[in-house]
């Protein structure tokens, strides 16, 4: 809150301060970009990371993947282990030193860097400045493809129904649902189908899924049912935590449907070879 | 439905959230009632606030009004007391629920009261006032229809606005038939008429009316109370004595501040532009007035609120205007209902306020019972960052119980040396590139050895199998090829 308003005269509360401006994107496509792979993607969905690199390369961007990267720190941060989260976050900072965009193929991890790193380093002014600069050039993959690369996809697949699940912290912090929808809408033969309670959480929530397995299980049961009843042949998501949760539950239920990462889906649909 | 619903519900403990939730999740009737009700409330809110621009501006304004009021809370409370006193209202201060109950009892005894009729008040639930008064031979009857239903069934409210929202018409029909001896009917209008008939007589018999307060206006010494059933106006005007009970955070500076808050409250809660009744109570009956109580009292309760107030971040908890929108939009609350929390305030707001009222030692699992999906923070009319505050409470909850300068009662109720060690290991893994790479190598190469059972994870999922090679490896090869 702005300090002057906080101490304003009573009548000043008649007019609320203006709402924050929507994010401004660079007008020029950059020549270089970093990819932050994220820990879950690294071990469980590595192809999606590679597809993200390929999508960016096709846009003429040179992709850099610092090998020393690990995790954004989110699991510890959301569990309340703030010191541990801070040190893991600190280990990432030096790896992305050039003034290139940092592209993250996972909405919640992008949100962590963009919105929560500043909180972690609020008591370290020098690091805070570095973190704020990094946050300003951090983009979720779909957002980057849409608004920075301004991609124009040519659909090369056949008629198909697709459901899009957007991680909830990511949709609220990064608007990933809007970006994902806009990218899918570019694919001519894709019909995006809504599923029941689409905006509702899949029940992952990091350590929530193991701390509260009963509640989390009820949530993912509803989510997987909704996805299966949607009539979609494919489920796509831009968040690997959700995919781990949804796919693990579908497998346990012996259901044939599986979710895949948006990057992989887009790469395949637009004629990309592996 | 059958006689099952007649068995008085056992009071659920806030220390057993996980167990309570497990039972609630298995109650198909509860699940279906809650889902339908919450879907309808979400739709109503959206219909009442269709313009996103207007909605977001109003929320921003609501946030500022509340934050400004809290920034000068001590001063505003003093002004409130002075102006209420000038209006003839007696103001009482209570630090604990015991003190608040003692004040109410003292007033009741001074008037030799035998019967109390109550409008809806969550603070009186905090005090367990009904139970307390009954222990002193004073009958306390709820007059809000939902509260009345709950009281008949010896239950606790499941929602702060709609206490009986977890019940459907058939369950209420059985309840009225069994407890009031009414002919069985599932006709909602008839059921409401039954309740009204019983309650109407009680309004005239009652010696004292009790109510809550939505906003206490410091500048004018006015207590504002919204309601839809008219029972609030009856409770505060018909009996000769009116006792209002509220939390110290409910004060706002002036009547103009009420305008955006009221608009936010009724639309966020029920999708109503305005409630049927908006009561502005400015004192007892004057000499030239025909009705109203002869005495009006206000009990201002702290009960842990000062603890939240003392911390700049946690203070935002006190922004709350008790609309219940966070509950209506919460995927956890929708599934387990309100009673499983074992607290007076359930749902997202309950998870951030109850630890202050009851201590973290009595609400150890509440901060963790959230996926931090953010639905609550998105709809909160006064923009309380509920997910951030839940995270903060988790941080307080895992500190060493004897760590210096505690900001919360019951700090460290989830302190676990074993879990702390695990996170230290996690930190080591993720801050040492060599270790991380080695771990990745073995996790992928030995993926065939992934155990089939991984504790709570495999309760709902198959064991996750790492890919054959990590992105680190794939990216290195791919980028080297270039």
Automatic annotation (TrEMBL), chain A:
InterPro entries: Cys_rich_dom. The lineage of its organism: Bacteria, Pseudomonadati, Pseudomonadota, Gammaproteobacteria, Pseudomonadales. Transmembrane segments: none annotated. GO terms for molecular function: oxidoreductase activity. Residues 1-23 are annotated as: Disordered. PANTHER family: LACTATE UTILIZATION PROTEIN A, UNCHARACTERIZED PROTEIN YKGE. It comes from Azotobacter chroococcum. Residues 35-114, 162-246 form the Cysteine-rich domain. One of its GO terms (cellular component) is cytosol. It comes from the Bacteria. This is L-lactate dehydrogenase complex protein LldE.
From TrEMBL, chain B:
Pfam families: Fer4_8, LUD_dom, LutB_C. One of its GO terms (biological process) is lactate metabolic process. The keyword DNA-binding does not apply. Keywords: 4Fe-4S, Electron transport, Iron, Iron-sulfur, Metal-binding, Repeat, Transport. Gene3D superfamilies: Alpha-helical ferredoxin, NagB/RpiA/CoA transferase-like. Residues 310-339 form the 4Fe-4S ferredoxin-type domain. GO terms for molecular function: 4 iron, 4 sulfur cluster binding; metal ion binding. NCBIfam families: LutB/LldF family L-lactate oxidation iron-sulfur protein. This is L-lactate dehydrogenase complex protein LldF. It comes from Azotobacter chroococcum.
């Amino acid at each position: 809150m702005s300090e002057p308003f906080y101490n304003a005269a009573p009548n000043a509360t008649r007019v609320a301060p203006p709402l924050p401006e929507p994010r401004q994107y660079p007008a020029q496509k950059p020549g270089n970009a970093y990819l932050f792979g994220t820990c879950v993607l690294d071990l469980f969905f590595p192809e999606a990371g590679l597809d993200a690199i390929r999508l960016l390369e096709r846009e003429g961007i040179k992709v850099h993947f610092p090998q020393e990267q690990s995790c954004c720190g989110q699991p510890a941060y959301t569990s309340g282990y703030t010191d541990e989260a801070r040190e893991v976050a600190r280990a990432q900072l030096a790896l992305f030193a050039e003034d290139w965009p940092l592209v993250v193929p996972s909405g919640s991890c992008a949100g962590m860097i963009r919105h929560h790193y500043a909180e972690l380093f609020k008591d370290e002014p020098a690091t805070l400045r570095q973190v704020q600069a990094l946050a300003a050039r951090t983009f979720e993959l779909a957002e980057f493809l849409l608004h920075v690369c301004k991609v124009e996809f040519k659909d090369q697949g056949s008629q198909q129904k697709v459901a899009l699940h957007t991680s909830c912290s990511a949709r609220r912090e990064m608007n990933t649902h809007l970006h994902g929808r806009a990218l899918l809408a570019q694919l001519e033969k894709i019909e995006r189908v809504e599923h029941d309670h689409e905006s509702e959480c899949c029940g992952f929530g990091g350590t929530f899924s193991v701390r509260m397995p009963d509640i989390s299980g009820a949530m993912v049961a509803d989510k997987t049912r909704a996805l299966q009843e949607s009539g979609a042949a494919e489920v796509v998501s831009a968040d690997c935590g959700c995919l781990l949760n949804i796919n693990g539950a579908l497998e346990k239920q012996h259901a044939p449907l599986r979710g895949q990462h948006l990057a992989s889906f887009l790469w395949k649909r637009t004629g990309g070879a592996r | 439905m059958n006689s099952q619903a007649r068995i008085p519900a056992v009071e659920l403990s806030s220390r057993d959230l996980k167990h309570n939730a497990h039972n609630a999740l298995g109650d198909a009737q509860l699940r279906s009632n809650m889902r339908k009700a919450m879907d309808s409330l979400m739709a109503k809110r959206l219909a009442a606030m269709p313009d996103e621009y207007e909605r977001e501006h109003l929320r921003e304004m609501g946030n500022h009004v509340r934050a400004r009021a809290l920034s000068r809370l001590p001063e505003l409370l003093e002004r409130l007391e002075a102006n209420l006193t000038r209006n003839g209202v007696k103001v009482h201060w209570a630090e604990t629920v015991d003190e608040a109950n003692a004040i109410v009892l003292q007033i009741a005894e001074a008037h030799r009261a035998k019967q109390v009729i109550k409008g809806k008040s969550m603070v009186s639930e905090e005090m367990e006032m009904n139970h307390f008064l009954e222990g002193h031979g004073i009958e306390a009857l709820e007059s809000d229809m939902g509260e009345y239903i709950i009281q008949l069934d010896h239950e606790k409210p499941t929602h702060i606005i709609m206490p009986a929202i977890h019940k459907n018409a058939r369950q209420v029909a059985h309840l009225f038939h069994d407890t009031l001896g009414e002919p069985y009917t599932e006709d909602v209008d008839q059921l409401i008429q039954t309740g009204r008939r019983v309650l109407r007589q009680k309004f005239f018999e009652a010696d004292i009316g009790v109510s809550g307060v939505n906003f206490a206006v410091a500048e004018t010494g006015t207590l504002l109370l919204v309601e839809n059933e008219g029972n609030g106006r009856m409770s505060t005007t018909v009996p000769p004595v009116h006792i209002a009970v509220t939390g110290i955070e409910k004060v706002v500076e002036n009547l103009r501040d009420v305008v955006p808050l009221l608009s936010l409250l009724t639309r966020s809660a029920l999708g109503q532009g305005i409630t049927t009744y908006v009561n502005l109570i400015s004192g007892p009956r004057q000499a030239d007035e025909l009705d109203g109580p002869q005495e009006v009292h206000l009990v201002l309760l702290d009960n842990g609120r000062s603890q939240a107030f003392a911390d700049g971040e946690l203070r935002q908890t006190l922004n709350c205007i008790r609309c219940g929108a966070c509950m209506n939009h919460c995927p956890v609350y929708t599934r387990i209902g309100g009673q499983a929390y074992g607290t007076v305030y359930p749902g997202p707001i309950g998870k951030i306020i109850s630890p202050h009222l009851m201590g973290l030692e009595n609400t150890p699992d509440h901060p963790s019972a959230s996926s931090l999906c953010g639905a609550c923070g998105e709809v909160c009319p006064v923009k309380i960052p509920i997910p951030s505050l839940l995270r903060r409470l988790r941080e307080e909850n895992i500190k060493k119980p004897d760590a210096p300068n505690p900001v919360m009662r019951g700090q460290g109720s989830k302190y676990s040396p074993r879990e702390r060690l695990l996170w230290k290991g996690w930190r080591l893994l993720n801050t040492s590139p060599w270790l991380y790479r080695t771990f990745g190598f073995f996790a992928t190469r030995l993926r065939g050895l992934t155990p089939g059972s991984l504790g709570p994870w495999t309760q709902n999922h198959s064991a996750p199998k790492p890919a054959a090679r990590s992105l680190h490896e794939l990216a290195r090869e791919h980028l080297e090829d270039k």
